[in-house]
Amino acid sequence: MPILSVMLRLSRTSYLYRAVPLMLVLHLGACSKLASLTGPKTSTSSATGVASVALVQGGAQSAQAGRQLATPIVLRVLDAKGKGLAGQAVTLVVTGGGGSIDTPTAVSDSVGELKVKWTLGTASPTQTLAVSVDSLAPVVVHATALFPLSLVIAQGASQSAKIATVLKNDLVIRVQGANGVPMIGVPVTFRVISGGGAITPQTSTTNSVGEVSAKWTVGAVAGGNTVVAESGTLSPVTIAATATP
Asked: Among 63, 72, 208, 228, which is most buried by a count of CB atoms within 10 Å?
C-alpha cells in the first residue's frame, strides 16, 4: 500500500477519534438544558426557606365576647436571615374560647405578611389562635374576651317631678365589662317596684357605648318612687325618684 494512502487513512481515523467525544459532550449538554426547561420546578417551602412565623400586630388584645377585635392580626413568614417570604401558605385555627376568623388559610404577600380578622368567642375569657406553616411548630396568638360585669346608673338618679308627670331627665343605664369597657347589644329590663307610675320602654338593648335609656313617669301619689334595672345574672340596680304634689 502506498505510504501516502496509509497516512490519509490514519489522519481520518485520528479525526474521528477526536470528533466522537466532542459530539457526545455536545449531545449531553443539549439534553441537560432540555431537562432543565421541561423538568418539574420546586417552589419555596419550609424545607428550603421558611424558618419562622412572627407576630407583627394584634397580639394580647381584648374585646367584648362575640365581637371582632379592633386591630387585625398581622403575621410575617421569615427565612433564616429574617427576610419575609412571599407566597407561603399559612393555616390558622381557633384553638380556645370559640369564635372565628375570616379565613382559615392565607398566603403571604410580597413582603411575607398576611392579615386576618378575629371574632372572639363566648365560651371563655381566654382566647387562642394557632398559626402554622408546613411542619413548623405553631405560633399561638392570645386575646381576652370580655363579658358583662356590672350595671351602672349613668344618668337620672334622685330626680323629682310632680305626680303623674315624666321626669326631666331620662334614666340611662350602662352595662360594663372589665376596666369599664362598654358592653354592646346587651338587653336591659326596667321594672317599677314602688310608687306606681310607668317606664318606657321596659326593655332595651345597649347601644355602641353600652347604654340604654328610658323615660320614667312618676306615680299619681306624692312620695317615693323606685325602679329597678336588670340584665341577666348581673346584680340589679335601683333608681329612686320623688313624686311631688
From this structure: 63
Question: pLDDT confidence of 20, banded at 50, 70, 90?
Answer: very low
Give the whole-angstrom CA distance, residue 52 versus residue 92. Answer: 15
Q: How confident is the model over 158-214, as pLDDT tens digits?
A: 999 999 999 999 999 999 999 999 999 999 999 999 999 999 999 999 999 999 999
Residue 237 has a pLDDT of 98
C-alpha to C-alpha distance for 10 and 26, rounded to whole angstroms: 25
DSSP state string for 23-73: HHHHHHHHHHHHHHHHS------TTTTEEEEEEEE-TTEEEETTSB-SS-E
| Contact predicate 45/19, CB 8 Å | no
Question: Which residue in 203, 194, 172, 200 sits closest to 240, CA to CA?
Answer: 194
Give the residue from 48, 61, 206 showing the smallest Cα distance to 135: 48
| DSSP secondary structure code for residue 144 in this structure | E
- 84-104 pLDDT, tens digit per residue, is 999 999 999 999 999 999 999
| Residue among 96, 127, 130, 133 nearest 113 (CA) | 133
C-alpha cell at 147: 363579658
